[in-house]
Every structure is written in C-alpha cells, then in structure tokens.
What we know:
The chain is of the alpha+beta class and about 290 residues long. It has helices at about 1-20, 75-80, 165-190, 195-225, 225-250, 260-275, 275-280, 285-290; strands at about 35-40, 50-55, 85-90, 115, 125-130, 135, 140, 145-150, 155-160.
Amino acid sequence: xxxxxxxxxxxxxxFLVGAMLLAPAARADIGPKPSLTVQVVNAPEGxxxxxxxxxxxxxxxxxxxxxxxxxxxxxxxxxxxxxxDGWVLAYTTGVAGRAPVFGSVLPREDGAWQFSYIGLPETxxxxxxxxxxxxxxxxxxxxxxxxxxxxxWESNTVRPVTPAPLHFLLQLLATLIPTLLIEALxxxxxxxxxxxxxxxxxxxxxxxxxxxxxxxxxxxxxxGYHPLFYGLGLILPELIIWAVECAAFALLLKEHSAxxxxxxxxxxxxxxxxxxxxxxxxxxxxxxxL
Length: 290
C-alpha cells in the first residue's frame, strides 16, 4: 500500500510539472493586465465620449491601438479641450514615456466603457464630452488591479460599484473556493482523513489566501502594474505561503509522518497553483464586474 501511495504521489507530481512545462512560452506581455470599467449614469441624450485624463506630457507618436478614425472629429476636439496644465487624455492622446492604454471613447454594447493594458493610469480624472460640452471629475485614485466605477454625469462624481471591504471579500472567495476544492482532493489522495487535519487545513488556507490578496495588492499599488511586478506580487507571496503551510502542517498535524505531511501540502499547493488558473479564467467576467 505504501508503494502504491508513493507511485500515486510521483504520478501527480509529474503531471503537475508537465502541465507547467506545456504552458505557453513566457513572453514579456504574458499575464493578465489591469483594467478599468466605467459606467455612466444620468447621462444626457446623444453621443457621449469618455476618456481618462491623467498627468503627463502628450506623446509625439501615438500608439496605433485606437479606433479614433471612426470617431467624430468635432466631438474629439471637444473632448481634447479638457487637456492642459499638465493633464492629457490617456487613451485619445497618450502619455509620453508610458505604455499605451487600450479601450475606446465610445461605450461597449453593454453601455459601459473599458480601458486596459499596462499604461492604465492609477491616478486620473474621468473626462466626458457631448456636443458642445465637456467636463472632468475630481481626481480618482484606483487601488485595484481590475476596477469598476460609476460616473454620475449630473453630479460629476465617481464612486466604486462595490465598496472596498465587500470587493476584497468577493475576490477572496473567488480564489479561496477553487483552492480549497483542489487542495482537499490532493490531500484526500494522500489519505488524510482526520477531522483535526481538515480544521487546520481550512484555518491555514483562510489566513494564507487573505495574506496573498493583501500582498498582491500592496505590490501592485506600490510598484505599479508592470507584468514583472504582477509576477513578483503573485509568485513571491505564493512561495511564502508554501513555506508557511509546510511548517503549519508539519507542526500542527498528527496524522501520518512529518515528511508525508510536507509532501502532501507541497503537492496540494502545486496543484492549486497550476490548476487554479482555469476556474479563475472562468470567473474573470465576474471579477471585472465588481
């Protein structure tokens, strides 16, 4: 029986390593990008253009990512009239020395505007224009990798769709539930059965998942949204989590040997790290809507 369990663990480990090796080749542009979704309420009748006004200098060679050739030149001029005093439109004009912003001055089919990519500003004003009229909100400071805000035309104010505490809780559950399911299955295959084991497993994962979200958010807010920082903000805390969970399982559990406890938690974490991206991909639209 012991030989069979060792073979099972080896097969599982080989499968997970193979899944990582078969993943797409790493590129500088790989990985998720920050995004901002803007909903407008109490808007006037007619066409509305929207962009993000941010501090900086206008780029001399705009990135060819826009659909501005399809836009109304007069309405674009009205939108650009807001620029000045060191503030430029992040999408329509572009900021010198920064990566581009993807999006559109027109809303999507669902009526919301979305901007994304690593040039997305963290500090901005919502700039809007209709025929013969343009305005910009007060300065907004975003602290989320995927943010969703509401702009009220009448009051010229901005508010989050989801309050920060609820947003954090929902994002935590979105990663915690797949993690618990995947890791519980792996630990079950390692023949962990005692109630104490599952109590420790649940408590440790609650603490480490909350820490992972806080760490990722801190890194991204402090260093910015570059893909390298996203990788560091995800991988480094994940390695710390592996070390913490290995120590917790080795010290707190009584079931099986210490080597088997550590081996089980390592395989469980590797499984959730590799396979967890699939359910998170499916949850992407939900997370972006928060």
